[in-house]
């Protein structure tokens, strides 16, 4: 069985708007296994958005755990992320999961990894997955030079640029906005 490569996820906070988006491609070896995987989820009634890169089953497990933590800590995004990262790093079962997550709330954007990292990205731009560096570069340039664009437009354009370059990224996008 060949490993599944999947995805580009990018999150941006710009002009009070918080948006996370991802492409829909999952690749096994040199074959596209699925072109419309939904890698972004709205949680807590739309007040939190989570996007994942990596193994889909692993990511679903992590999103469920994150949502449990979010509920347990009264919707406190940073605390829920830290508690998930602690569990992910120390729990025998979770430690084997291969994925990364971007989570976003009203004015927070965080990257969570299985090594216990909870990172607040510079410039309010986060990207994970196969095409992360392409999407992040595009997003940073758009934030700097195209400030008239909305965060949603920046996320979409960043993902399209990544899809034009990265063979593990396609143009089937799912984009979610944090609701007030």
**SS field, number of helical segments:** 5
Distance separating the two termini: 44 Å
Overall tally of domains: 1
Number of strands: 12
Give the C-level CATH assignment.
Answer: Alpha Beta
Q: Structural class per helix/strand content?
A: alpha+beta
EC number: 3.4.25.2
Subunit structure: A double ring-shaped homohexamer of HslV is capped on each side by a ring-shaped HslU homohexamer. The assembly of the HslU/HslV complex is dependent on binding of ATP.
Catalytic activity: ATP-dependent cleavage of peptide bonds with broad specificity
Pfam families: Proteasome
Defining key terms:
globular; 180 residues; alpha+beta; 31% strand; Glutamine Phosphoribosylpyrophosphate, subunit 1, domain 1; five-stranded antiparallel β-sheet; single chain; four-stranded antiparallel β-sheet
Q: What report would you give on this structure?
A:
This protein is an alpha+beta fold. It has one domain: 4-Layer Sandwich (Glutamine Phosphoribosylpyrophosphate, subunit 1, domain 1). It has helices at residues 56-72, 77-90, 92-95, 132-145, 151-165, and strands spanning 4-6, 8-14, 17-22, 26-28, 31-34, 40-43, 48-54, 99-104, 109-112, 118-119, 125-129, 174-177. The strands form three sheets. It has a five-stranded antiparallel sheet with strand order 6-7-8-9-10. A four-stranded antiparallel sheet has the order 11-2-3-12, covered by helices on one side. α1 crosses α2. The radius of gyration is 15 Å and the shape is globular.
């Amino acid at each position: 069985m060949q490993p599944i490569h999947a995805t580009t996820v990018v999150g941006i906070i710009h002009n009070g708007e918080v948006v996370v988006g991802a492409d829909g491609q999952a690749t096994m070896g040199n074959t596209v296994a699925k072109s419309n995987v939904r890698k972004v989820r709205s949680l807590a009634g739309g007040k939190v958005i989570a996007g994942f890169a990596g193994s889909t089953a692993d990511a679903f497990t992590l999103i469920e755990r994150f949502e449990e933590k979010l509920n347990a800590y009264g919707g406190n995004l940073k605390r829920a992320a830290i508690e998930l990262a602690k569990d992910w790093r120390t729990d025998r079962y979770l430690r084997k999961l291969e994925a990364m997550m971007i989570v976003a709330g009203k004015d927070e954007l965080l990257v969570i990894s299985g090594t216990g990292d909870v990172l607040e990205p510079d410039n309010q731009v986060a990207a994970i997955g196969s095409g992360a560096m392409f999407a992040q570069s595009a997003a940073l340039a758009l934030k700097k030079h195209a400030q008239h664009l909305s965060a949603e437009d920046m996320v979409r354009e960043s993902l399209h640029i990544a899809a034009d370059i990265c063979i593990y990224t396609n143009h089937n996008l799912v984009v979610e906005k944090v609701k007030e």
